Amino acid sequence: MQQKIDEMKPVLLKEIQMAASLTALEDIRVKTLGKSGSITSLMKELGSLSLEEKKKAGQLLNTLKTEIAEAIEKQKETLALKEMNEKLESEKVDVTLPIRPDTHSGRIHPVSQVIEEMLTIFAQMGFDLAEGPDVEDDWHNFEALNIPPSHPARQMQATFFMENTEDKILRTQTSGVQIRTMENKKPPIKIVAPGRTYRRDYDMTHTPMFHQIEGLVIDTKTNLANLKTTLFEFMKLFFETDDVSLRFRTAYFPFTEPSFEVDVGCSRENGEFKIKSGAGWIELLGCGMVHPNVLRNCGLDPDVYQGFAFGCGIDRFAMLKYGIPDLRSFFDADMRWIKHYGFLPLDIPNIMSGLSLNAGGKR
Q1: What tens digit of pLDDT does each residue of 30-74 get?
Q2: What pLDDT digit, counting tens, does each position of 325-338 carry?
Q3: Residue by residue, what is the 3-state secondary structure of the chain?
Q4: Is 175 exposed, middle or buried (0-12, 13-18, 19+ CB in 10 A)?
Q5: Which residues contact 268 (CB under 8 A, 6 or more apart)?
Q6: pTM of the predicted model, to two decimals?
Q7: pLDDT tens digits for 296-323?
Q8: How far is CA 138 from CA 156, 210, 298, in A?
């Protein structure tokens, strides 16, 4: 028995070492340690030996079995690492190579593009980005914004209420981010807050889920002139034209006083819509000076601090800038639509290159 073991051991170890693949190594394992394997067959011969011979041979076989199993496991790790390296080498992609527009089909959604355009502009103007939860509580969405339970604005917003909760809703506006910022950050504050909002409405210009961006500036000196200048500069940069005129109409919002709706000059000559100074106007956003009650609700003294806020629909800005007629198409997941209105990945704007069109990109 010992002679058989002494002859078998180097042969098996050499086969294991020479195995060139995990499949070949598994074949060796089965041939050696399997039910009909060579070592298993020797174990079966122990029954024909005397007690003393059986004890000695059993120890030798167990030692051989352990050495072979360890050798197989070690070679398995070596082969697995080798296969992994070969796979990584063969499948690697050079990410420094430029994307070729004629060989890829991905597109950036107009809403995503417009969000990046807006954030690029506001970043250049010194605004910070702020975010908040889509599922909001009553305090941050209504109460802190000077909208008590009996206020008619609550009914106008057609709110989605969460089941089995006392005050959780899908936010109807991103204004809750402004409240959270004022609660947790001392002035001066200068932020913009983009995000999804939700209201029970659905037609060509309204959907149950849409996108808003709001701006907030709080300090000791901010005034209405600062608000008007900010919006005027933003409109010029976003629509990429100096020929912009704005009209501020008095309005009512519970969270600002005074409040305004802002129209931008436009032209519809020959059936073509353009943002420019002209005979026509189109409403784009709401704004105003932050109401003293809102400041008090956030722990700020309105005798010391003042500020302005503004908000607009991102989807509406996308429709106007890129000539998209129906808001519902934004959510249809139609590849033909995204091919037509979408943007190439390299067109995403940034602070270095500016907006996509300024950077030379095109749809």
Answers
A1: 888 888 888 888 777 777 777 777 787 778 888 888 888 898 899
A2: 888 888 888 888 98
A3: CHHHHHHHHHHHHHHHHHCCCHHHHHHHHHHHHCCCCHHHHHHHHHHHCCHHHHHHHHHHHHHHHHHHHHHHHHHHHHHHHHHHHHHHHHHCCCCCCCCCHHHCCCCECHHHHHHHHHHHHHHHCCCEECCCCCEEEHHHHCHHHCCCCCCHHHHHCCCEECCCCCCEEECCCCHHHHHHHHHHCCCCEEEEEEEEEECCCCECCECCEEEEEEEEEEECCCCHHHHHHHHHHHHHHHHCCCCCCEEEEEEEECCEEEEEEEEEEEECHHHCCEECCCCEEEEEEEEEEECHHHHHHCCCCCCCCEEEEEEEEHHHHHHHHHCCCCHHHHHCCCHHHHHHHCECHHHCCECCCECCCCCCCCC
A4: buried
A5: 274, 280
A6: 0.67
A7: 999 999 999 999 999 999 998 998 888 8
A8: 15, 20, 15
Those residues whose C-beta lies under 8 Å from the C-beta of residue 218, and which sit 6 or more positions away, are 182, 187, 188, 189, 190, 290, 295, 300, 305, 306, 307
Taking the C-alpha atoms of residue 312 and residue 283, their distance in angstroms, rounded to an integer, is 10
Burial of 40 (0-12, 13-18, 19+ CB in 10 A): middle
